[in-house]
Amino acid sequence: MAPTIESVYLGNGGLSEGNNKRSNRFVKATWKNNLTALVVDNVELCRVLERENLRAYGVETVAVETGEAAVELVASGSTFNLIFIDIYLPTMSGPEAVRQIRAMGVRSKIIGLTAIITEKDEQDFFAAGIDEFYEKPLDPDWFVPIIREVDNQI
Amino acid sequence: MAETDVRKQIKDYVQTMHEQGILDHNFENVQNLQGEENPHFVLDIIDIFCRDAEICIEDMTKSVDEPVVDYAKVTGFIHLLKGSSSSVGGCRIVLACRELRKATESKTKERCVEAVNNIKREFFTVRDNLNAIAKMERSIRTDDAMTGIF
């Protein structure tokens, strides 16, 4: 099944589909590089908020619902500076999706997300290859420094 | 009523919700994502949250009412509800979810049933307050539409 891409925010101010133009009024930060992110979350509300939070901080963001969609997107050649991925996904789990993405040689910053952090989940997710692990929701207090770090490393 | 007046009403209302511990700063993060290009964002988020949380709580209730409770399944529902509740600032639902999580860890059906009932109470409180905010938001949209007509 082809990955479901909800929408893409283009840094030049437009959306990739329809006539729904977006200005740069959202951008609460400017970066040295054009940064891109992939959000993987099967909970619609969380997925929308994660996507919009990243866009508000000037990160071109694609959002998908499943681990399979994320793996397929990366396998098709799409590259992302940041990947935010929920641990509990239907069929293919977050850790399994991360394992497959890392096995493709992807070195993007991968941030694992969960509603409730447990020691076992933390161990499993880090063993799969994430770089950091946070409880939802995305909060600028912790995700903006991550974006800044990635921007500085490019 | 002028939009600025309604915006002030919403701001004061949200402040009251903060003071009562019903909503936390994450709701303001949602509000901050609304703008001219997505004027219905807060309304959309409230609608999605209320719809999906209600379904989740219904499924949760059915699960804990089973003769033999599938605690892993209930944990899945907790993740879903806690994730979305925390995203909209529903901090009391989040606390109630934590209590249910502890109940599932103790594998005590009665504790789980009690915890789910508590989640329902907290959800109804948050839902009613979010719907009040949604009503105020809609009044702005209605005024905008009328201004467009005249």
UniProtKB/TrEMBL annotation, chain A:
SMART domains: REC (SM00448). Keywords: Phosphoprotein. The modification 4-aspartylphosphate is found at D86. Residues 36-151 form the Response regulatory domain. Pfam families: Response_reg (PF00072). The keyword DNA-binding does not apply. This is Response regulatory domain-containing protein. It comes from Carya illinoinensis (Pecan).
UniProtKB/TrEMBL annotation, chain B:
GO terms for cellular component: cytosol; nucleus. One of its GO terms (biological process) is cytokinin-activated signaling pathway. PROSITE patterns: HPT. Residues 38-140 form the HPt domain. Keywords: Acetylation, Cytokinin signaling pathway, Cytoplasm, Nucleus, Phosphoprotein, Two-component regulatory system. Gene3D superfamilies: HPT domain. The keyword Signal does not apply. GO terms for molecular function: histidine phosphotransfer kinase activity; protein histidine kinase binding. SUPFAM superfamilies: Histidine-containing phosphotransfer domain, HPT domain (SSF47226). The keyword Phosphoprotein applies. The modification Phosphohistidine is found at H79. It is found in: Cytoplasm, Cytosol; Nucleus. Functions as a two-component phosphorelay mediators between cytokinin sensor histidine kinases and response regulators (B-type ARRs). Plays an important role in propagating cytokinin signal transduction. PANTHER family: HISTIDINE-CONTAINING PHOSPHOTRANSFER PROTEIN 2 (PTHR28242:SF30), PHOSPHORELAY INTERMEDIATE PROTEIN YPD1 (PTHR28242). Histidine-containing phosphotransfer domain (HPt) contains an active histidine that mediates the phosphotransfer. This is Histidine-containing phosphotransfer protein.
